[in-house]
Amino acid sequence: MLIIDGDYPMAIGAMDLNRDLTLPLPEVRGTAPDRFAEDSRPDADTMASLPEMRRGGVAAALVKVVARHYRSGSPLWGYRAPEMTYAAARAQLSYYQMLETRGEAKILRTGSDFSRHIQSWSTGDPREGLPVGFILGMEGADPILETNQVSRWWRDGIRVISLSHYGLSTYCHGTGTGTSGGLFPPAKALLREMESAGMILDVTHASDASVREALDLFGGPVLASHQNCRAIVPGERQFPDDQLRAVIGRDGVIGASMDSWMLYRPGLDWGGPIPPRRSVYAKEEVTLEDYCDHIDHVCQLAGNSRHAAIGGDTDGQGGSGGAPAEIDTVADYQKVAGVLQQRGYSSEAIENIMFGNWQRFFEAHLPRPAAGSPGNPAEGG
Q1: Cα angle vertex 153, ends 147, 157, to 5°?
Q2: Furthest CA-CA distance within the chain
Q3: Is there a contact between 252 and 299 (Cβ–Cβ < 8 Å)?
Q4: For residue 55, with 0-12 CB atoms within 10 Å meaning exposed, 13-18 middle and 19 or more buried, which class applies?
Q5: How many whole angstroms separate alpha carbon 114 and alpha carbon 332?
Q6: Which terminus of the chain has a lower count of CB atoms within 10 Å, N or C?
């Protein structure tokens, strides 16, 4: 079965963690240690590479550029100046563009691109030579230094933007702050420019107040790329039911994250220091049953299977060490289908969750080329 992953911050693994993700996964994992790398993010825990995605049937992913401007009290590292934040995001974008140039990937800029790509994967056998589809997103809008830059990011292929990541951003309160604040003044102009350009708003990682305010201001398409359910696991990183319903009501899709911190039922105080997860629970304590509970919760809220999907946060959530017990690589995402089948989900519902909902959403909300146009990257709504 095909899989579409709703969140893969691939460039972080490649550029910040110095991994060659064009290699087969065993080679990535077995690379000689980089003496400058973070000890907490070993190569041996890598879950995805392009060959592994092909092996696992991951036809496409929403891949992210992620660059934060550091502010006092931020829970994660960030760049000290906005210009550095911008430059880092541009470098990550260039990485994805070069993978396309090399034939490793295909950047899916339009709905037609998406349809053709999925068709090629549906009929392509073997898949070893197929490019992996990339929908380009920005996780946290700090790299947008002025709202008039939105049009340039659009021309260069970015189609999805979230307002914040961890901590305070230029535009709103994000998760990991322990605060209840909402949007900052520049957000209104940004959202207006995003809507005008045709951007999709990703509400993941924004504070509760920020999500509610952004949905009131933004009239374009909405998704939650990697977001779990607060009704099951407490903590500000998960969405309460009213926000899940709000995304569903906008015909959005909610990707369930593979981050075991977001699946561990006692929850976590996201506003304080995050302890090493193995000091709190063993990998075996969080399973795909826990994961599918979040998928099922979204389906129950919606009354159908058309709004729940995979949103792995693949390798951004800590790699295999931070995934459910049954997950070692991205190819193991196929096991989700088996759990859903055991729960009585129909074949149609399982296909919706594994790939169909993201396919339907992106075919509908990525732009269509103008009549008579070959579909160049600068075009769209």
Answers
A1: 155
A2: 59
A3: no
A4: middle
A5: 24
A6: N
What is the β-pairing status of strands 3-8 and 58-65? parallel
Separation of alpha carbons 338 and 242, rounded Å: 29
The CA radius of gyration of the chain, in Å to the nearest whole number, is: 19
pTM for this predicted structure: 0.96
Beta-carbon contacts of 82 under 8 Å, excluding residues fewer than 6 positions away, are 69, 142, 145, 170
Structure tokens at 107: 């950047």
All residues at 6 or more sequence positions from 226 whose CB lies less than 8 Å from its CB, including other chains: 6, 7, 204, 255, 256, 257, 259, 311, 312, 313, 317
**Rounded-to-integer distance, Cα 336 and Cα 295, Å:** 10
pLDDT digits (tens, 9 = 90+) for 228-238: 999 999 999 99
Report pLDDT digits (tens) over 138-153.
999 999 999 999 999 9
On whether the CB atoms of residues 254 and 227 are closer than 8 A, the answer is yes
